[in-house]
UniProtKB/TrEMBL annotation, chains A, B:
Repeat is among the record's keywords: yes
Chief localization: membrane
Residue intervals of the CBS domain: 713-760
GO CC annotation: membrane
Membrane topology classification: Multi-pass membrane protein
Gene3D superfamilies: CBS-domain, Clc chloride channel
Pfam families linked: CBS, Voltage_CLC
UniProt KW Transmembrane helix keyword: yes
Source species of the chain: Dictyostelium purpureum
Identification of the protein by name: Chloride channel protein
Superkingdom of the organism of origin: Eukaryota
Location relative to the cell: Membrane
Molecular function GO labels: chloride channel activity; transmembrane transporter activity
Length: 760, 760
């Protein structure tokens, strides 16, 4: 054994100040020239509001249970030995497998979208069937009781589903997915339980008439399916088939989740390109060209599957991959240059409304978190209360305005489109007449949107549009964050279409030739951009939904302005939700306020290091005495008391080595690769749930044995010098998807370590 | 002065083998267990054809004159001192400035697109005006002479323009732009000379009837404008205004070039979203969310500007941001599920044709490079020869087939679109009749495409489509690579539309209800994907061009299949062109064949290092004796003979320090920041063309002075340990956009350096 083995085998590099205690370090700077920034200045100027925010100790504590993911390749000697043997076939097979997984992912997500849409249609059909039975008889209170009763039942079941499956099945789940793709795992967020809970809760809540949409949850569902299908294991059952072994790592899983998120939104909107762009622009933190292609393929499969099923599985030979909300196609009338100014105003309004929505919704959620906590009864009660209020308003609002004659609606004949969406809801009106608000609120949201986008001239009166906009805005704020599954896209589109059409009709009082349906469309886009701050993705989704590119310029203009205006006030709703959920999200670039910080100011000096060859009993005591997830492996150097960086090893891998009793059989400094524990075996064991230290028992002989960490540690682990600035270290950390970043000094001694939470 | 200053002041770290000569390095591996890969194995299996290819010494030599770019921030002490002073306003101003630059970029590129389109229309109009004068009189040879004479004149001028402006003004310029965005600068490629040369050459070549399109060059033009407007300097005139100082670095320039490339294609196609996706999917190697937004904004401005100008600058108040090739909108008939199989076949054909195109074009270009070299006469002669051949074929091919009755064309009435594009070319036919091939070949390509996409039933006969496809395929291959500016998008769309319509009409012989115009559309998309291997970008461009999303599934399907099939045979035409032009392009991931290589196998051990404080005469002799672009700065350590890594400094920065005589005034190891040479000054000087060493003269006192490199060297330079594998180092290099990557050993001594060319 080398002399280094007789030294104390693990030590803490504590209280080492890389700046001052070094014997030879000319990195001293005369303090009168540069003031060294010893701690984070809290009053530094920033360009963005939220970025002012520094984590409080409580928040840091709450983030503790969210584990970071290993997106880096553990490039150890075992893997290198394995690579010597791999052939062209292996890589081809792995790539081919990814495409096959994407194919199945697309089909499954498409089927789920189909099931959700069909069941929702069925449930809503039933609801309106029974309600309309009383409506047609003119029995107001019976009709209301039936309507609100069914709604209440659906919401109750939906909320119970969330209570059973856990709160992660509620809301949209986008913050959790975004978090995972950024590098942290919210426990249980992509598990089977939340998947099934979310599907059922979504079906019920969307059928219940609450102001929630199916798109957000579909993203979560897609991601969960992506995670499940690519991993294909069950830690509960201890089922780990070898077939998917090569994909069973955080990096490949992340890619499939990226694909899944895109696929979910594609299937929900019937928008394959919009889905890909959503993943690129909003949810994914890591992207590659290869991923673009696979995502695109998968989105196409999902859209096709869901359309194929919805159109009766080929029972009609003609197919139509139309958008959900066909908008009609006019070549005769478009818009004038002067109207571009109006579209800018719509963008401004969308931005302000969006920012207001974020502000109110986030504060409501904060209140919920403080008052209702995780108490299922209070949560259920709240959901039911919102349901009753929604039912009352949606039902009785229609009585404010009188009935109007269906025959008075003027249809634009120049538009090349079937105008079936001008069929309005009769409600309690006499035959041949229709109720304005009933047509918007008493029905499903898709129909309401279609009516708002319909190219007719005098379908709605101004007051009814005002009332509709206010109602949908208030209830969207209130419904988001309830313990039911539900997203925000459709409610926000309704709000936007409401004020857009209102604005268009207002304009047409003074100007001639204004087509208010275009304003409704642009308003929807502006409102969506205003609350979630996406741009190109929203534009493409609107184009795919409405099947036409004629209104590209107005939509893009409004979306860009809405985003700028919204960003002026606050950040997107997902950013705020992630903050509220204590998800440690790393933005692309660090805030400007960190410009003056050096890495030595933020790094943790409390590094526990391990020698290259380490005794079992030392390993056990080190693992027991701290909860670090990675340990730099060091060499004692010539003097025998140095901590020269050699590599880094993960706690889980040490546990696997201990569990499998992979002891060192050599003498001196040779590295042996254990034939019984080759790369395949190592990969298999590390892809399982890590063994518990408490479940392992070692006899005296075993505890005295040594384990050689060198073949298993990451030899290509990235390190930085202690001269780094925080900003450059952040970029490295973020771009490479790191989890741990050891800091070395001029002698290659480990003086600190940076983890994800130090970067926030 | 410290003791280290008396040592020899710069030395070469040569012949140091990190593997064996170290006193204390346990990284030895028993050879019988792991065979160390001492050199690149040439017979290792790879998954991709071209990746088998290793650079020959000749190729490496040719790559020498292509300099790498500095995408990393030079995070030195000066910058840190400057950051202490910067306020919120500074960052806000910088961000705001980027948006303003994008605004102007969009307007300028839009105007250029307008100018090109208008002038081309004018020139083509003149050409056909004179030719048709003789045609209408029935004078065949006079008409031909006029036609071919004008074509010849245009080609001649176009080629002369390239000869004057340099060969970089020819072809599309996409490889050069891709190269720049990947991190290397082809000299002159984005300069004013090639910009103007390209614009004029493009106008002439596109008017001349050659099978070239305007889109590729527009990408180059957009990039060059982006580079020019964001830098706003002239090294020839020595004009360096301070206003744009903050953007005058390779990193910001790169981002504006990314934006410019997207804007160019947006303006050319009238496709803002397609442009953004083109930049994301094809040309850009580095991307961020912020860039998405700016690119999107800029593309919108460019598209809007060019449409606004084309539609008569608001002379008509109505506006229409239509695609160039409106396709018509049918809701009654779409396609059947069974036809999806046919679209797959089209994808297959597109892939095979695309791969064939790449193969033939690349070999032709290789032949050109070997035989014609850079000889302007041969190049001019070739261009003229191709022009004459094109004129002959395009003119006389029409006589092969008889005339057909215009009134026989059956127009699909279910399609909601003005059918003005069914107006055919009469050529030498009697009144009321038209010439089939004349309608396709004797006119401008836009019209030909519109006719191929027109929703009519019996416009073309099968033989004429066969002849058209063959002619356009052959001439596209031949025309690409001539010394005239010209891209491939439009010619490839014509080939694809030709065989697509042919296939559709063939099918309609056996099956009823086939709409061959859809096949033409899908064929175009498949052909484009087949030659350039883009996917989502092509789909979006096709949608934006044809203004409808009804045929999304067939297009996506054909594009994906064409890409797969093409990739089976070779790589995209741009990859091959980059190889031919010796542009050292780094793919996202290294080839699998490099899995077994370690960084010590590829790194250059011939590192020239500099001490932290260095004498002027030493610096001069070091700079004179080698042509390295960066030098690791080292510390002598306690023993005085170590080479401990401290930072890295660029040659250009040393030259600036020498030129400005920034000598060290301190004693010992203190670092002084020179008040007369602060960050602003440093930034200003380094953004200029670097001073020449030969132009500097130092007296004896100056040569004996010292320069302290510490305040100017990059203290946040990334290093790797010599235990790294090649693949992980490659990822780091590629993801962080590095130019130099020093390799350190267990003692932090510099043992090697990796540059871009070592990564190939």
């Amino acid at each position: 054994m080398g002399s280094s083995l007789n030294k104390p085998l693990a030590d803490r590099v504590q209280d080492i100040d890389g700046q001052s205690s070094m014997v030879f370090d000319p990195w001293k700077i005369r303090p009168e020239i540069i003031n060294s920034t010893t701690e984070m200045s809290t009053n530094t100027s920033v360009t963005h509001r939220r970025r002012n925010h520094r984590l409080s100790p409580l928040e840091k504590q709450k983030m503790k249970n969210i584990q970071s993911l290993n997106f880096t390749v553990n490039d150890n000697l075992l893997q290198r030995a394995e690579f010597e043997k791999t052939t062209k076939g292996f890589h081809l097979k792995k790539t081919f497998g990814k495409w096959i997984i994407c194919l199945f992912l697309g089909i499954i997500v498409g089927c789920i979208a189909y099931i959700i849409k069909t069941v929702v249609q069925l449930l809503q059909g039933l609801k309106f069937h029974y309600t309309n039975y009383y409506v047609s008889k003119g029995l107001q209170s019976e009709a209301f009781l039936t309507f609100s009763g069914i709604n209440l039942l659906f919401v109750c079941l939906s909320c119970l589903m969330v209570i059973v499956a856990g709160p992660l099945a509620s809301s949209s789940g986008i913050p959790e997915v975004k978090g995972y793709l950024n590098g942290v795992k919210v426990p249980e967020s992509l598990g089977f339980r939340s998947l099934f809970g979310k599907i059922i809760s979504l079906i019920l809540s969307y059928s219940s008439g609450l102001f929630v949409g199916p798109e957000g949850p579909m993203i979560h569902i897609g991601s969960a399916v992506g995670a499940a299908i690519s991993q294909f294991k069950s830690s509960t059952l201890g089922f780990y088939p070898d077939l998917f072994l090569n994909y069973r790592n955080d990096r490949d899983k992340r890619d499939f989740i990226s694909v899944g998120a895109a696929t979910g939104i594609s299937a929900a909107f019937g928008a394959p390109i919009g889905g890909v762009l959503f993943s690129i622009e909003e949810v994914s933190s890591f992207w590659s060209r290869q991923l673009t292609w696979r995502t695109f393929f998968c989105c196409m499969i999902a859209t096709f599957t869901s359309n194929f099923l919805l159109q009766g599985m080929g029972s009609s030979p003609d197919m139509h991959d139309s958008g959900l909300l066909t908008f009609g196609f006019s070549r005769l009338y478009l818009y004038r240059y002067s109207e571009l100014l109006c579209f800018c105003i719509l963008g401004l309004v969308g931005g302000i409304f969006g920012a207001t929505f974020v502000f109110l919704n986030i504060h409501l959620n904060k209140w919920r978190k403080e008052k209702l906590k995780q108490n299922p009864f209070l949560r259920l009660f709240e959901a039911l209360f919102v349901s009753i209020c929604t039912s009352i308003i949606c039902y009785y609002a229609s009585f404010i305005f009188g009935c109007r004659y269906q025959s008075n609606i003027i249809i634009e004949t120049s538009v090349c489109e079937d105008q079936s969406n001008t069929e309005m809801v009769q409600f309690f009106c006499p035959n041949g007449m229709y109720s304005e608000l009933g047509s918007l609120l008493f029905g499903n949201p898709d129909q309401a949107l279609r009516r708002l986008y319909s190219r007719t001239l005098n379908m709605f009166t101004l007051p009814s549009l005002v009332v509709f906009t206010v109602i949908s805005f208030v209830f969207s704020i209130w419904s988001s964050g309830l313990w039911v599954a539900g997203g925000l896209f459709v409610p926000m589109m309704m709000v936007g279409a409401g004020f857009g059409r209102l604005f268009g009709q207002l304009l047409s009082l003074w100007f001639t030739g204004i087509d208010s349906s275009i304003y409704a469309l642009v308003g929807s886009a502006a409102m969506m951009a205003g609350y979630c701050r996406m741009t190109i993705c929203i534009v493409v989704i609107m184009v795919e939904l409405t099947e036409g590119t004629q209104y590209l310029v107005p939509i893009i203009l409004a979306v860009m302005i809405a985003k700028w205006v919204g960003d002026f006030f606050n950040e997107s709703v997902y950013e705020h939700l992630m903050e509220q959920k204590y998800i440690p999200f790393l933005q692309t670039l660090p805030p400007h306020s960190t410009n003056n910080i050096r890495i030595t100011n933020v790094m943790s000096k409390n590094v526990v290091v391990l020698p290259e060859v380490c005794q079992v009993k030392t390993l056990i005591s080190v693992l027991n005495n701290n909860n670090h997830n990675a340990f730099p492996v060091i060499n004692r150097g010539i003097t025998g008391d140095q901590r020269l960086y050699r590599g880094i090893i993960l706690r889980d891998h040490i546990l696997v080595l201990l569990f499998n009793r992979v002891f060192y059989r050599g003498t001196g400094e040779e590295i042996y690769l254990d034939e019984n524990f080759d790369f395949k075996q190592f990969q298999k064991e590390t892809s399982k749930k890590p063994p518990q230290l408490s479940e392992m028992e070692f006899d005296y002989y075993e505890s005295e044995s040594y384990i050689d960490l060198r073949p298993y540690m990451n030899s290509s682990g990235i390190t930085i010098h202690n001269t780094f600035s925080f900003v450059e270290a952040y970029k490295l950390f973020r771009n490479m998807g790191l989890r741990h970043l050891p800091v070395i000094d001029i002698n290659n001694e480990v003086v600190g370590i940076v983890t994800r939470k130090d970067m926030l």
